[in-house]
Design a protein that fits this description.
With 261 residues, the protein is α/β, with parallel strands linked by helices. Helices cover 46% and strands 11% of the residues. The chain is elongated. It binds ligand L4RZE5RM and magnesium ion (MG). Magnesium ion binds next to loops.
Length: 261
């Protein structure tokens, strides 16, 4: 087993979800197909609701920002001219969502709609959040040792709470001191990590960030956080340079807190 000695100044562990706590296959084979298969029906059922209309406004704004991106699907404004028009707008939203998902985009607009759609799927027991087997016992141990544990994922805070609230291990939300999503900033921008530390009330060097994505690790490191890159089955491979540059772990059990080293 490779050991990663957590520096003594670390008081907070910040966790990514996909590829870190949770298999990428769960996201790609369970969460995302649910959205692709159900988005049209969901929009038809919830069209009149305020929350749904807010989600569509955000998607429309994102489509406008994406107007120069190849393949973007614009979302027309509804003028109130009848059911045919509603169906056309719904189809544009469906196509836009499918287009964004085909590129695995992490826009706040897409993630917000996804979070709202998963709510029903989790609540009815249709889906349960999954984690690598080392994850929950390790987090419990870190907390017993006095560490604070936070989540930072591109998935919306609402989606994160569903994943941990309705999981194969039951409701484990109590294990987290808080959640961050792209509303605080994108995961590849170092400013996001400064904002997170400031929101927690600590310095960036008091935080250890665990992620599978080296661009995220790089941004966190630029902000002076400690980072380790997590290698899990199904994750994208790293280059030889990345492998030699970053501290790598394959399980949370490879982290040793100052008191346990
Ligand atoms: C509850 S998170 C759902 C997964 C997701 O939508 C996603 O984009 C995960 O990204 P991450 O930043 O956790 O790698
Ligand atoms: Mg990830």
């Amino acid at each position: 087993m490779v050991a990663f000695a957590v520096p003594a100044e670390v008081a907070v562990i910040l966790l990514d979800i996909e590829g870190t706590t949770t298999p990428i296959t769960y996201v790609k084979d369970t969460l995302f197909p649910y959205i692709r298969d159900n988005v049209k029906e969901y929009l038809r059922m919830h069209w009149e609701e305020e929350e749904c209309q807010q989600d569509i406004s955000l998607l429309r704004k994102q489509a406008e920002e994406d107007s120069n991106v190849d393949g973007v699907v614009p979302i027309p404004l509804e003028t109130g001219s009848g059911e045919d028009e509603v169906e056309q707008v719904i189809q544009a939203v469906v196509d836009n969502v499918h287009w964004q998902m085909s590129l695995d985009r992490k826009t706040t607009a897409l993630k917000q709609l996804q979070g709202h759609m998963w709510r029903a799927a989790y609540a009815t027991g249709h889906m349960k959040g999954e984690f690598f087997q080392d994850v929950v016992p390790a987090i419990r141990k870190w907390r017993e040792a006095g560490m604070k544990v936070y989540i930072y994922s591109s998935g919306s805070v609402e989606a994160q709470k569903l994943l941990f609230g309705y999981s194969t291990e039951g409701d484990i939300l109590e294990l987290f001191d808080g959640h961050f999503d792209t509303k605080i900033g994108h995961k590849v921008e170092s400013e996001s990590y400064r904002r997170i530390a400031s929101s927690i009330g600590c310095s960036t060097n008091n935080v250890l960030f665990l992620t599978d994505v080296t661009r995220e690790a790089n941004a966190a490191e630029e902000a002076d956080m400690h980072v380790a890159v997590v290698l899990r089955p199904g994750n994208a491979g790293l280059t030889d340079d990345e492998k030699s540059y970053y501290s790598l772990i394959t399980s949370f059990n490879e982290l040793f807190l100052p008191s346990s080293t």
